[in-house]
Amino acid sequence: MFEPSSRYHAVPTATRTLADGRTVTHLRRRFLPQPEELTAVGEHVVTAGERLDHIAARRYGDPEQSWRIADANRAVRPDDLTAVPGRRLRIALPAEASAAGGERTR
User: Which of 4, 34, 89, 99 is 20 to 30 A from 17 via CA?
Assistant: First the structure.
């Protein structure tokens, strides 16, 4: 249903039958990982005008991986991560790779 690189790839689906008999399939809730449980692989210092998708493109090779940076920094509003130049962002592996014992590199 979702690409392997999507934050929703490992989220299971559920079905529900509505009163009119239609069956609806939906994603279950995605629980955010605890940042301290993610394997840190680096740090990024925000500069003026940077966007999270640009940082993700540089760090992960894919701008759509900005959700990894948001997860690693416990961001409720991802745009807040780049609002203040000088902020240090934690760069981490996704939860699945961290649980598998990913290597730490800088």
Answer: 4
